[in-house]
Structure formats: structure tokens, C-alpha cells
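Encode chain A's predicted structure.
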Amino acid sequence: MSIRIPAEWEPHEATWIGWPHNKSDWPGKFAPISWVYCEIARYISRSEKVRIIVEDKNHEAKARKVLKAVDANLDNIEFYKLKTNRGWMRDLGPAFVKDETGNISAVSFRFNGWAKYDNYKKDEKLPGFISEKFSLEEVIAEHKGRHVVLEGGSIDCNGNGTLLTTEECLMDDKVQVRNPGFTKKDYEEVFKKYLGITNTIWLGKGIAGDDTHGHVDDLCRFVNKDTVILVEESRHGGTDDLNYKILKENKERLQNAKLEDGSKLNEVYLPMPQPVIFKGKRLPASYANFYISNTAVLVPTFNDPNDRIALGILSELITDRPVIGIHCVDLVWGLGTIHCLTHEQPL
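Encoded structure for chain A:
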């Protein structure tokens, strides 16, 4: 029976988030982070369940208190207790796929701390936890006798069989190596078998400051089945900016890309905000890290003149739900924003 991974704009049963607890993700800036999560949960809970992973009863009580303060819809918020190392749900959670009858199963890819950090063993348990809680079939993604490492932020799909990813994240054989020895053909076989993907578009490198080494969800995203947005650097440092050549090369690649039926891909370009620097470190600030919930598109903003331009472009492309900016200058210090911390469970 054929399967497919639904597009993010298709109806959700719920959105998963992990309530923040690891202060080392936001050193010196942890205090405001729960309020950013509150804003995200407040908008999502208006139209779908928000399923929140917490450490224990005390952690849940703290989350409830701040969620109540911002008037989130607590009737649509559920808490699940599971010890985690971090809680970036996009990368820890399973890939939910549907078969021809609409039955949903959970594909479990391995998580290894982005092939960078050692403290990830608790995070590995999330796919099995969700599968068991909701009586979903858990499918272990294996290839060449190995449990395949793949993070949700490294791929983006149009629901029709086309997938976006980057060579920097999946093909680099020296830095943050996910699956040593894998070729593009290996990955494409995995995508087809476990996600129903028939067409893979390979981009080059991700944006500067990206701790994951090239996640596509900071770079290029589908907004409908035949249109993508790609971030571009056309202001700020000009050709000297770290992102300029990277994004120019990806733009050239996209111009030759095709969809699963052989038709041309539509491309729209989003500006980048000015570089966000904190404690001497460039952070992965990007408007592409938006999340499409059932009734809103939540977009990271950075106190930048390009905030309104990016929101306007996305509003013209996604017209069936409002596009809402969420202040993320503090959140991005954790090296991720809205899409990184959310994970949709399809209806």
C-alpha cells in the first residue's frame, strides 16, 4: 500500500512542542523563553491540540501558569511526561505518514544530537513514546542494516511526492556526519520507502550560523504543492555577507528544479533580516523558519525592517489563514526558532 508524508498546511490533529527546560540552550537568556513558547502555543491552541512534553508535574505546573496568563486555550492543551535532553520537536519526533486509506503510522528515524552533541539519549525515545501513547504503528527506518539518522528540519515536503533537502546536512562526510557512507541514491531510496517521496531536490548549503549544518527549514520551504520560498541576501553586507554566495548558488539550483510530475517549480524569494549577533556569535535568524498551523502561519521576526516585507510576501502566498509575526530575537539564541520547536501530527 502506498504512503505519503502530508504537507504541513494539511489538517493537523495536533502540534507537539517540548516545554523548555535546558538552560544551556539559551545561556543567560532562559527567562524570556517560556513566554515566546506561550505565544506560539496560544495561537496554535485556537484550532488544534497542543501536545506538550514536560519533565514532571512541577514542570507542567510552571507551563500551565504562564499559558493561563496569556489566555491560551487550556482545553486544547495536553501534557505528556517524558524526560528529554532538549526538546526540539521537529528533529526528535517521528515522521507521520498516511496510507491510501488515511491510516497514520509513525516513522522512527534515529536522532543522534545532530551528529554534534553527546547528550541526546533521552531524546531518542520520543518516536516510540508517541507511537505507544496513540497506538500508532511504529516503523523503524532502516537502510543497509542501519537505523537511519534523519531530522525533521533537514527535509521539507509538498505532500505530493517532492522533498527538499541540502547536501551540506546529509552528504558532508567530514562535519556532523549523519549516515557515514550514504550516497544520494541511498537517501532517495529511504525517502521513497518510508515517506513516499518520488522526487528529491538537492540544494547546497544552509545559512550561516546554523548549528545543524544545513537544515533546509531555515533556507527553503514549500508554501503550496508547486511553490517554494527561498531566502536571499540582497542587502546588508552585499557580496561580502556570509550568506550571499550560499543563497545565490541555491537560487541557481532551484531554477533548474522540477516537481514530481516534471513541471517547473515556482520560486518566490524572502529577504533575510540583518545578521543577528549575540555574544559575538552569528545566529541562524531566518524568516523561512515559519510554522503553518491549522488556522495561522507563525513567522519569526527580529526587530528588523524586513520583518514586514517577509510577512507581506508570505501573506500573499498563503491566503487561507492569517500570517502572524512572533518576536524571536531571544528564541534564536537557542539556534532555532518556530519551525524547529514544533512538529505537526496530521489528522
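Residues 3-346 form a domain with the L-arginine/glycine Amidinotransferase; Chain A fold (CATH 3.75.10.10).
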